[in-house]
Amino acid sequence: MTKQPAGGSKxxxxxxxxxxxxxxFVYVSGQGALDGGGESAATVGEQTEIxxxxxxxxxxxxxxxxxxxxxxxxxxxxxxxxxxxDKVYRASFPEPxxxxxxxxxxxxxxxxxxxxxxxxxxxxxSG
Length: 127
Fold this sequence. Notes:
This protein is 24% helix and 28% strand. The chain is α+β, with helices and mostly antiparallel strands. It has one domain (2-122): CATH 3.30.1330.40. A hairpin with a 3-residue loop joins strand 2 (18-21) and strand 3 (25-31).
């Protein structure tokens, strides 16, 4: 059984911002700093801050926080931006840091997107 949490931006494509699966796992779709047609933040660090905030909003609406994230996928249009992204990422997630894969990609869905991040979280046990 799955359900969709309410948080996050309206998707620009055919996907859900997040899905709660089997009652314990929250799968959050890739989030970018743009909302379709809007101006983007100038640097990958600024965009990463916005993206992490969007991840946190989807997680919060599902009953989770960044501390509940167990895995992230990070996509960078320029892998040389890794250090700037990683600095913001490290400051955003508590220890133990989630497992992570970082991939350099030729392009992201909207012009000006420098970084996109998706994640999987485990909902805290209630009671």
